C-alpha cells in the first residue's frame, strides 16, 4: 500500500458484527461502514490495527439490490444508526445469523423455532445525547460516525414522540447550564410523568447558574433534572414530579440514572418471554433485578427474591413492594452477584432463576447455577457473546436449552437481545 489514505475499489463480501461491509485487500480484511454484500465500492483506506484496514466509503460503484433509501437524512453522518440502508427482511435475517454464529462458537445450536420479536422505530424512551458549548453556540445531538464531533439533532426517528418533542427544550437547557468549551452527556428517560434528565460532565454546576437551570428545566416541563460531575454521586437539581414507571401493574419510583429497558414495547416482549419460560414455578430468584422489570410480573406467578448490586434500585423496588403490600410475595436484597454470586446452598429452595445481567454477562453466577439443583433458568441477555459463554457453563452443568426468543428493540443497529429457557432433567 503506497499511503495511509489510498483510494481503492473493493467488492464487499459480507457484513461484520457491527454492520460494516467486509472486503479483502492484500490478504487483510477491510471494514467499510454503510457498504453491503455484493456491492462494488470505492473507499479511502487507513490502518485499523489488528492486521486490518478501515475503508471510508467514497462512492458506490455498483449497488446491492437490497440497498434501500435511508429514512433519516442524517444517516451515515450521525453515528446513531448503522443499517438504515439495508432492506428489513435481510436486516432481520442478518441479526438472526449473527446470533447463530456467536452461539456456534461455543458449540450451541440456535433452535430452529427461535422466534424474533421486532420493535418498530419510534419507540425509544431512553437515550444519551451529547452536548458541547463553544461561545454562544451549542451542538446537541449524537456523535458523528467514527468521530467525537456532535451532529446537531432536531429530530430522531428512533425516539418516542415525547422524547422528540423534548429535544428543543433540552438544547436550551444545555445552552444555559454549560460553560464555554464544556462537554456533557444528557441521559434522558421518558417516565410516566415526563422526562427524567441526568447531566453527566466533568464540572460541577455553579450555584450562580442553578436558578437559571431550574427555570430552564421547568420551561422544558422536565419531571426531574439531576447533575453528576466526575465520579461523584448524582445530585437532584429540581424535581417537579417523581419519575415513575410501571412494571406489571406496580408503580415504581425511578432512582436517578437507573436502568430501564429502552422501549416499553421491547420490555413487554422480554417480560412475555420470561414469564412464559418460568411457567408455574412458585419460588423464583430474579437476579440482576434492577428496579423490578421482571420482579413484579413474576410476583403474579410465585414468590420472588430480587437481587441487584445497585442499592438505590433495590430501595426503589422495596418501596414499591411496601406500597403495593407485596411483602409476602417479594423480597429485595442488595448484593453484588459478580463478586458474590448466590451459591448452591442459597438456591436450594428456588424452583427457577431469572437473570438479566449487564453486557459483561453473569459468568460467576452461571458457574454457581451449574453446580446447583435449580430446575429451570431463564437467561436474558443484551450481548449474545457473553450469553453464549454463560449458557455453555449451564449446558456443561447438566442443563438443556429448551427455547430461545430474539428481541430486536434497537432498530437499524447491530444489537439484539435474547431470552433463553434452560432446564434440567
List the helices and strands and how they pair.
Elements: E1 7-11, E2 14-15, E3 21-25, E4 28-32, E5 40-47, E6 53-62, H1 88-104, E7 115-118, E8 126-134, E9 137-143, E10 150-152, H2 161-165, H3 167-177, E11 183-191, E12 194-201, H4 210-219, E13 224-229, E14 235-239, E15 244-247, E16 250-253, H5 264-278, E17 283-287, H6 295-298, E18 303-308, H7 311-323, E19 330-334, E20 352-355, H8 363-371, E21 376-381, H9 384-396, E22 399-408, E23 417-424
Parallel strand pairs: 4-6, 7-22, 12-13, 17-18, 17-20, 18-19, 20-21
Antiparallel strand pairs: 1-5, 2-3, 3-4, 5-6, 8-9, 8-11, 9-10, 11-12, 13-14, 15-16, 21-23, 22-23
Folded structure, characterized:
The protein is of the alpha/beta class. It folds into three domains: 7-67, Nucleic acid-binding proteins (OB fold (Dihydrolipoamide Acetyltransferase, E2P)), CATH 2.40.50.140; 92-120 and 263-424, Vaccinia Virus protein VP39 (Rossmann fold), CATH 3.40.50.150; 126-244, OB fold (Dihydrolipoamide Acetyltransferase, E2P), CATH 2.40.50. 23% of the residues lie in helices and 32% in strands. It has helices at residues 88-104, 161-165, 167-177, 210-219, 264-278, 295-298, 311-323, 363-371, 384-396; strands at 7-11, 14-15, 21-25, 28-32, 40-47, 53-62, 115-118, 126-134, 137-143, 150-152, 183-191, 194-201, 224-229, 235-239, 244-247, 250-253, 283-287, 303-308, 330-334, 352-355, 376-381, 399-408, 417-424. The strands form four sheets. It has an eight-stranded mixed beta sheet, sandwiched between helices. Strands 10-9-8-11-12-13-14 form a seven-stranded mixed beta sheet. A six-stranded mixed beta sheet has the order 1-5-6-4-3-2, with no helix packed on it. Helix 3 packs antiparallel against helix 4 (210-219) and helix 8 runs parallel beside helix 9. The protein is globular, with a radius of gyration of 23 Å. The mean pLDDT is 96.
Amino acid at each position: 500500500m503506497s499511503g495511509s489514505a489510498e483510494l481503492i475499489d473493493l467488492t464487499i463480501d459480507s457484513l461484520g458484527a457491527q454492520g460494516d461491509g467486509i472486503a479483502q485487500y492484500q490478504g487483510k480484511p477491510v471494514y467499510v461502514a454503510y457498504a453491503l454484500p455484493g456491492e462494488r465500492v470505492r473507499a479511502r483506506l487507513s490502518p485499523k490495527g489488528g492486521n486490518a484496514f478501515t475503508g471510508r466509503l467514497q462512492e458506490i460503484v455498483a449497488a446491492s439490490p437490497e440497498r434501500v433509501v435511508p429514512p433519516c437524512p442524517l444517516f451515515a453522518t450521525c453515528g446513531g444508526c448503522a443499517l438504515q440502508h439495508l432492506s428489513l427482511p435481510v436486516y432481520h435475517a442478518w441479526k438472526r445469523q449473527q446470533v447463530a454464529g456467536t452461539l456456534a462458537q461455543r458449540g450451541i445450536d440456535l433452535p430452529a423455532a427461535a422466534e424474533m420479536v421486532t420493535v418498530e422505530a419510534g419507540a425509544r424512551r431512553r437515550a444519551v445525547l451529547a452536548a458541547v458549548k463553544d461561545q454562544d453556540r451549542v451542538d446537541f445531538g449524537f456523535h458523528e460516525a467514527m468521530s467525537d464531533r456532535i451532529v446537531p439533532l432536531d429530530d430522531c426517528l428512533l425516539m418516542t414522540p415525547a422524547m422528540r418533542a423534548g429535544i428543543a427544550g433540552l438544547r436550551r437547557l444545555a445552552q444555559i447550564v454549560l460553560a464555554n468549551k464544556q462537554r456533557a452527556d444528557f441521559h434522558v428517560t421518558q417516565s410516566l410523568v415526563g422526562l427524567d434528565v441526568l447531566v453527566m460532565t466533568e464540572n460541577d454546576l455553579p450555584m450562580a447558574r442553578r436558578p437559571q437551570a431550574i427555570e430552564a428545566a421547568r420551561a422544558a416541563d422536565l419531571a426531574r433534572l439531576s447533575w453528576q460531575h466526575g465520579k461523584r454521586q448524582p445530585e437532584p437539581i429540581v424535581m417537579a414530579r417523581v419519575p415513575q414507571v410501571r412494571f406489571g401493574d406496580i408503580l415504581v419510583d425511578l432512582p436517578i440514572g437507573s436502568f430501564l429497558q429502552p422501549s416499553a414495547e421491547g420490555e413487554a416482549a422480554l417480560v412475555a418471554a420470561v414469564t412464559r419460560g418460568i411457567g408455574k414455578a412458585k419460588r423464583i430468584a430474579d437476579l440482576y433485578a434492577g428496579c423490578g422489570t421482571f420482579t413484579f410480573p413474576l410476583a403474579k406467578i410465585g414468590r420472588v427474591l430480587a437481587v441487584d448490586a445497585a442499592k438505590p434500585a433495590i430501595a426503589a423496588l422495596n418501596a414499591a413492594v411496601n406500597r403495593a403490600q407485596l411483602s409476602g410475595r417479594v423480597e429485595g436484597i442488595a448484593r453484588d452477584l459478580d463478586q458474590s454470586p448466590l451459591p448452591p446452598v442459597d438456591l436450594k429452595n428456588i424452583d427457577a432463576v431469572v437473570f438479566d445481567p449487564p453486557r459483561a454477562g453473569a459468568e460467576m453466577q452461571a458457574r454457581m447455577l451449574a453446580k446447583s439443583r435449580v430446575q429451570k433458568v431463564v437467561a436474558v441477555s443484551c450481548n449474545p457473546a457473553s450469553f453464549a459463554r454463560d449458557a455453555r457453563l449451564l449446558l456443561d452443568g447438566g442443563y438443556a436449552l429448551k427455547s430461545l426468543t430474539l428481541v430486536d428493540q434497537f432498530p437499524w443497529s447491530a444489537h439484539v437481545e435474547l431470552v433463553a429457557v434452560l432446564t434440567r432433567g
